[in-house]
UniProtKB/TrEMBL annotation:
Keywords: Iron, Iron-sulfur, Membrane, Metal-binding, Transmembrane, Transmembrane helix. GO terms for molecular function: iron-sulfur cluster binding; transferase activity. One of its GO terms (cellular component) is cell envelope. SUPFAM superfamilies: Metallo-hydrolase/oxidoreductase (SSF56281). It comes from Malonomonas rubra DSM 5091. It is found in: Cell envelope. The lineage of its organism: Bacteria, Pseudomonadati, Thermodesulfobacteriota, Desulfuromonadia, Desulfuromonadales. This is 7,8-dihydropterin-6-yl-methyl-4-(Beta-D-ribofuranosyl)aminobenzene 5'-phosphate synthase. Coiled coil: none annotated. Pfam families: Lactamase_B. The chain crosses the membrane at residues 12-31. The keyword Lipid biosynthesis does not apply. Residues 152-220 form the Metallo-beta-lactamase domain. Heterodimer of a large and a small subunit.
Length: 385
């Protein structure tokens, strides 16, 4: 039995299930391999997605918003986490009526004629009509996949939020020129959340024909926004489950409900030759354990090894801490990731917990308004393979 198999069996006993009596409450049984007897063995599908030579990630922006207190104040004031995100009156869908009184149709009517070419003018309209436009950052990453032949394939994962911030980040990392030169062949959206999706017109300003992949579950407003933003290319709705794209690269759509009336998340898996599996996420709302377990159950990868992970791991996005998060920190060790490139909704506090636990967390530079070098900040890069 390989070390990964042993780790995985232990993990099943350590992290799944609740409420098994006083012993479990004390934490002894919860972290014992004895618990694996409660779970049936699942036959691994071992789907072959091919191999690639390397995966290189550029963090265009991991700063979804600049002040946690401002965002949480808006959410609470508008009615809470279950409110439709298009109703908060955040940019770009502001109608000037105040917090919680937003409307997709009203907001879009003010800027549609300016998209995608005149995003500067559109953003000025947003500043005048939206709630806290200065807090709108965004998440976006450039994925560069090197095929075994040496050919490089470039993809965007998400497109930020605030037009001004996203455009600044695109220009800083040369994404504007790559898009204009058609070097980036597709834009993958992880999910419909404001900080990953609403900056779409910035991408379309430079390449309105880019192919877009969205996870199954987008709402009518999101589908309409793609059209209203000036997209002239192909839109592919990716179904739930595993979906291979190019040799060594596949996405997986998790059918999960998410806060602010969003549904479904699309994450990425890469099989790097002689190294193992690399997992890339936007937010990982499906949970880091489910993300890793899905790969184990679904995919065949080199050396049966979890090689690396990049992105938001959604453990302490507001840098709060609940004791149950410690379970996740402890459990992650059992997968044996050789490199962890975390940021965004992982939270600075969680990244520090990872470092304290002895994980190989790749340090960043804390530049371009990222808060701490404990994780990969804006403009930082990570290579796998």
């Amino acid at each position: 039995m390989s070390d990964n198999m042993k780790r995985r069996d232990f993990l099943k006993g350590a992290t799944t299930g609740v409420g098994l009596g006083m012993l479990g409450a004390m934490g002894i049984y919860s972290y014992s391999p004895l618990r694996k007897q409660h779970f049936p063995e699942v036959a691994r599908k071992m789907t072959d997605i091919g191999v690639c030579k390397s995966v290189n990630v550029t963090n265009i922006s991991e700063t979804s918003w600049f002040e946690n207190a401002t965002l949480m104040g808006d959410i609470k004031g508008a009615g809470g986490l279950l409110v439709n995100q298009y109703d908060y009156n955040w940019p770009p869908f502001g109608n000037g009526k105040g917090l919680g009184k937003g409307s997709y149709d009203d907001g879009m009517a003010k800027i549609k004629h300016l998209l995608p070419d005149k995003i500067d003018e559109a953003w000025q309209v947003c500043v005048e009509n939206c709630v806290h436009p200065e807090n709108a950052g965004g998440y976006a990453a450039l994925i560069d996949v090197e095929e075994m032949s040496g050919k490089h394939r470039k993809f965007l994962l998400d497109s930020g939020w605030g037009y001004a911030w996203t455009d600044e980040c695109f220009k800083r990392e040369g994404i504007d020129k790559m898009l204009a030169n058609r070097e980036i062949e597709a834009l993958f959206f992880s999910h419909e959340h404001f900080d990953h999706f609403w900056g779409l017109p910035v991408t379309l300003k430079y390449d309105p024909t880019i192919t877009i992949y969205i996870p199954e579950g987008f709402y009518p407003e999101g589908l309409q926004y793609i059209k209203d933003s000036g997209h002239k290319g192909k839109v592919v709705t990716v179904p739930k489950g595993l979906n291979p794209h190019i040799p060594g690269m596949a996405t997986y759509v998790f059918g999960i409900p998410i806060i602010c009336r969003v549904y479904g998340e699309q994450s990425m898996y890469f099989n790097v030759k002689d190294k193992g599996l690399v997992s890339v996420t936007g937010c990982c709302h499906q949970g880091i354990i489910r993300f890793a377990e899905t790969a184990y159950n679904e995919i065949k990868y080199e050396n049966d090894n979890f090689y690396g992970i990049y992105g938001g791991l959604h453990i302490s996005p507001f840098d709060d801490w609940d004791p149950k998060y410690d379970d996740l920190v402890i459990s992650l060790k059992n997968y044996g990731f050789e490199q962890i490139g975390c940021n965004h909704c992982t939270g600075v506090l969680c990244a520090k917990k990872f470092v304290a636990a002895g994980y190989n967390v790749i340090e960043g530079t804390a530049q371009h308004r990222s808060k701490d070098k404990v994780y990969l900040g804006n403009g930082d890069k990570i290579s796998f393979g």
